[in-house]
Amino acid sequence: MNGSKDATLHQRILSEIEGRIVSGEWQPGYRIPFEVDLAMQYGCSRMTVNKVLTQLAKAGLIERRKKSGSFVTQPQAQSAVLEIHDIKAEVQSLNLPYSYSVTKSVSRKIKAEDKLDLPAGGLVKEIVCVHFAGTRPFCLEQRLINLSAVPEAADADFGVLAPGAWLLKQVPWSAAEHKIYAFEAGAEEAAALGIARSTACLVIERRTWSSAGSVTHVRFTYPGDRHALVARFSPAS
What we know:
The termini are far apart. The chain is built from 6 helices and 11 strands. The protein has 2 domains: about 10-70, Winged helix-like DNA-binding domain superfamily/Winged helix DNA-binding domain (Arc Repressor Mutant, subunit A, Orthogonal Bundle); about 85-225, Chorismate lyase. The longest helix has 21 residues, at about 1-20. With about 240 residues, the protein is of the alpha+beta class.
């Protein structure tokens, strides 16, 4: 009976601490109560608490520091360098709730500085949205869609489905180009992501094409300490 009771209590402590982290109640850097305090709070042994904290550390939710205690970690997402990544999946991989907000959605003529292969006078859909991990901004998306290649985008409701996911359902792409670089946040990026100006950011720019020509150009801006790129290689045979 005691073993079953200990297992149930272990799960309760784990669920409650994890819930506070995932919900944002305990923000990155927050020091979790010491083992002895948690043991007293839950009326259990320090060993039970220790097992819970060890499990949370293995899951990447907390960092345990000798003599200092346990702290909520800064979540860091990973995406593959050559994949068309899904931001919603990235956020959910962190065990955080995902949401996004569209801040701009307009149809207009192409500009000289736009990075789409269109003739002068061509029409594009410009969309700007912020993706969230929990309550914190996760990524700023700035996208242009070629309306001659995807005319449905002119009247699409991007408040229901994010532009990237919507496009993947509409247009099969045949070629893509990625450009990855470091960038210091300007006023627009800082305001959207809730960071200070000149904060180091990671930028991923992507262009895609289909048989109808250029489809979209999108720029994703991430705070530099919240994202990493991963590539796997196999030796040549």
